[in-house]
Amino acid sequence: MDRKAAYALFGALMAGCAVAMALAPRSETMYAAFTLIYAFINGLAYAGFSAVALEAIGLGAAATKYNLFASLSNIPIGYMTAVDGWAAARWGPGGMLHTEAAVGVLALLFFVVVAALSSRERAQAA
Question: What is the mean pLDDT for each group of 10 consecutive residues in the chain (126 residues)?
Fold first, then answer.
């Protein structure tokens, strides 16, 4: 599977898991099960990010470029913490999880648009 497609797929899986978690009964068993599932998908997403970053950096100064990408990847993690906190205070845990999923879907749509535009540019250049 293409690295970028895998990364997008893992994001969609995380959004789906967040929605399922929001709709599931609030119990210790569900919390434990969804925490494990979400953590597993999160690991897939980090692997997908690493694969995309390693593909993008090329050969020269690879360690520096990878660490630059990795440090920049912390920016959305930081602002999503603030967004999730705001959503939880406003709508409760279910609303926070739906907000998390909605942002994931918006990011996925953004990636699809960027991929479509970049493939069109490559086709015109050829």
Answer: 92 96 96 97 96 89 92 93 97 96 95 88 77
Say how far residue 32 (Cα) sits from the centre of its chain. Answer: 21
Q: Fill in the amino acid letter for 101.
A: A
Q: How far apart are CA 19 and CA 38, in angstroms?
A: 11
CA geometry: angle at 116 spanning 110 and 119, to 5°? Answer: 135
CA distances from residue 97 to 6, 12, 92 in whole angstroms, order as listed:
22, 14, 9
- For residue 17, CA distances in Å to 7, 38, 82, 92 come to 15, 6, 20, 17
Provide the domain limits for residue 48: 3-125
Token readout for 56 is 């993008």
Number of domains in the chain: 1
Q: What does DSSP assign to residue 24?
A: S
